[in-house]
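User: Predict the complex.
Assistant: Input components as received:
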Amino acid sequence: MALDFTNFVRVFAVAMLLMAAAMSVAYADDDDDDYKFNVNNATWKSECGACHVAYPPGLLPAESWRAIMSGLARHFGSDASLDAASADEITAFLEKNADTGKHELSDKPLLRITETRRFKSEHSEVAARHWKNPGVKSRANCGACHTTADSGDFSEDNVKIPR
Amino acid sequence: MPWHMGAGRGCSGHSTNLLNGVRDKFIFDAELPIHKPLNVTSIFGETWMLRAISVFGLLITAAGLLVNPAYAETPVEVLAVLKTEASATPGFQGFSAARGESFFKTKHSHDLSCSSCHTDNPAAQGKHAETDKLIKPLAPAANSERFTDMKKVAKWFKRNCNDVLDRECTPQEKGDVLAYLLTVPKN
């Protein structure tokens, strides 16, 4: 019996080590693909996460964020106006962590993530009926499918489309 | 946490003023169903009453601070501030919880009411009418963080009134709504 127990401890320890190694590989991979975004700013998180999931800065280029931040009093049909100090802090955070990829070429900055080429290509395999699901309601409702959207993690592994 | 420190500072800045507001005005004028106005003056005399009320006010404030030192204001203090603003309007006769309730539940512009997002029961969890994002209960009895930060209260009244009425709410409307919310019991 005593021997069995020692063995169990050994096997368990090895299993844990393997899991940890596997996880760090997975994380490194995701970082390269940019699907874990920087969400490390408390003002941004509470102000921009009050009415919808706080959309991480890495989802839009800096020009888009500047355009959004300068029109908060009429923001997609809602009044989202902010005091100047919070707005300045948030704009700086958004610009610093914005999407710098070259995939968004347009003369006017896009205001919606859901209209970017990148969003469309990442979701090209999502069937139309999923977007129409009442549990999803809007394409902008990332959290309906991306269960870890709140923490800035949009990787495929954490997607669960509501039935 | 810096947020806590900020909230603490707000407290010392306002407390004397607010306490006066609470002591002199709130307790007797706000037309809440729980404390029906009672003419104590005629029974006990004015000095006694003022003293009793000051002590009562101090105790409440102290208790509030002890229970949660992070909150800058209490809902009762927020109501007192709204009352000071509303008193500037000629003909002001105090707040009414009943009027606040009907304002809250009535659809104004865009087919929206306050209940569209905060539900007909403000002690329950709400849901953003457009985005489906869950919203914590609005009634202080159900959510002790509500109406404890004057800046936050002012920000959301401005935004939500603009969305629902295409204009800002008057101090009278805001006070009526808060008077109503203060009568909503915990579920």
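Chain A touches chain B at residues 42, 50-53, 77-83, 137-138, 140-141, 143-144 (CB under 8 Å).
Let me know if you want any component modeled separately.
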